[in-house]
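User: tokens in, sequence out, please.
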């Protein structure tokens, strides 16, 4: 599976719990560091940082600080945070190494790159 999605919206407590449980169950011991969650802020119509490198198994959490709604949407359609209103966050867990370009579905000039290392 490419990604596991965990929403951290206020009303998604049950879903969040399920996502964390899934992470827990699939968390085979790794030789290196424990999986991390990396944060990307969406602010002033930019992803910050716009380029991020993570390890397979890590999660990325996007948080929208703008009044306008935004998404983080993979260019090739493999993953999507869905619409994030102001103050909302969504986290995705990346299992498959690769370089992923993404954009905001509402503002395609907003772009970012995520690199997942083995
Ligand atoms: Cu946007």
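Assistant: Sequence out:
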């Amino acid at each position: 599976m490419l990604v596991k999605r965990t929403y951290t919206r206020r009303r998604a407590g049950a879903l969040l719990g399920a996502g964390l449980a899934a992470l827990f169950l699939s968390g085979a011991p790794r030789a290196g560091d424990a999986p991390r969650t990396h944060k990307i802020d969406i602010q002033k119509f930019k992803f910050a940082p716009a380029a991020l490198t993570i390890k397979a198994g890590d999660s990325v959490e996007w948080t929208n600080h703008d009044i306008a709604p935004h998404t983080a949407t993979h260019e090739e359609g493999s993953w999507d945070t869905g619409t994030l209103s102001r103050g909302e966050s969504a986290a995705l867990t990346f299992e498959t190494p690769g370089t992923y370009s993404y954009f905001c579905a509402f503002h395609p000039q907003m772009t970012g790159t995520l690199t997942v290392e083995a």
